[in-house]
Design a protein that fits this description.
binds 2'-O-acetyl adenosine-5-diphosphoribose, 11 helices, alpha/beta, six-stranded parallel β-sheet
């Protein structure tokens, strides 16, 4: 017996999925947990249990101590660079191939969906592999070597920072618009591996539900969203999603 066959997938969900025209998926840190990437809010292992987001993930923190913030993100960049996509990421690549329309929205900055082969990923919180400048948002793939930490923008001379959304910053407008449009037009909305606590991402499944979509949650733990979900699949995404794909194939 494989791990995935132990997960119970309701027949009605399989029927809904077969009939769906547009499937939208929102992912959070939990989908990358089985790749060894830490989540944020889990009690012992979450990043925010060990580090203070106000010291590391706000524009004020960067202005106060740019070196600390740069080095913390450099550590995380290296960590996700070493991680590899897991069966949960792979199952979403497969799902995209079998439904008429598919929109993958992620809060993750780790790039693992893209590395698994997902296309047109809607990145709500940026991408940790990218670097931009603080003053003008110039995206900077390379910069001259120097001892300065953080390095400076070769275009305008301001400090470089990761291209991620910090607390208090706006989400990229185009990505948010695409995500909202998908939530409002899909038939089936999956929320996978997210605590559903950070806005505006957390409101996407509710918008989908309001427009009549079936909402499916995949998470080993209950979240504030669970009571609104039509189906709550309790388990790790790396097992639940392959099990769902197995059911679709038969
Ligand atoms: P959280 O750390 O808040 O939530 C992770 C969720 O994943 C929890 O509900 C876990 O129960 C669940 N989980 C853990 N392992 C899982 C697994 N194997 N399969 C499925 N689910 C699993 O992370 P997010 O909801 O992604 O923002 O956090 C949202 C945002 O808050 C992040 O994008 C980040 C953070 O501050 C920014 O960096 C802007």
């Amino acid at each position: 017996m494989t791990a995935s066959t132990e997960i119970e997938i309701p027949d009605l969900l399989v029927q809904n999925l077969r009939a769906a025209n547009h499937v939208a998926v929102l992912t959070g840190a939990g989908i990358s947990a089985e790749s060894g990437v830490p989540t944020f809010r889990e009690a012992q292992t979450g990043l925010w249990a060990q580090y203070d987001p106000q010291e590391l993930a706000t524009p004020q923190a960067f202005r106060r101590n740019p070196k600390l913030v740069w080095e913390w993100y450099a550590w995380r960049r290296e960590l996700v660079g070493r991680a590899t996509p897991n069966p949960g990421h792979a199952a979403l690549v497969e799902l995209a191939a079998v439904v008429p329309k598919f929109t993958l929205i992620t809060q993750n900055v780790d790039g693992l969906h893209q590395r698994a082969g997902s296309e047109n990923v809607v990145c709500l919180h940026g991408n940790i592999a990218e670097t931009k400048c603080y003053d003008h948002n110039h995206l900077v793939p390379h910069w001259p070597e120097s001892d300065r930490v953080p390095p400076i923008c070769p275009i305008c001379g301001s400090l470089l920072r990761p291209n991620v959304v910090w607390f208090g910053e706006n989400l990229p407008v185009a990505a948010l618009n695409t995500a909202v449009a998908a939530a409002e037009s899909c038939d089936l909305f999956f929320t996978i591996g997210t605590s559903a606590l950070v806005q505006p991402a957390a409101s996407l499944p509710l918008r989908a539900a309001e427009r009549g979509a079936t909402v499916v949650e995949v998470n080993p733990q209950p979240t504030p969203l669970t009571r609104f979900a039509d189906f709550a699949l309790t388990g790790p995404a790396g097992q639940v999603l392959p099990a769902l794909l197995d059911r679709l194939r038969v």
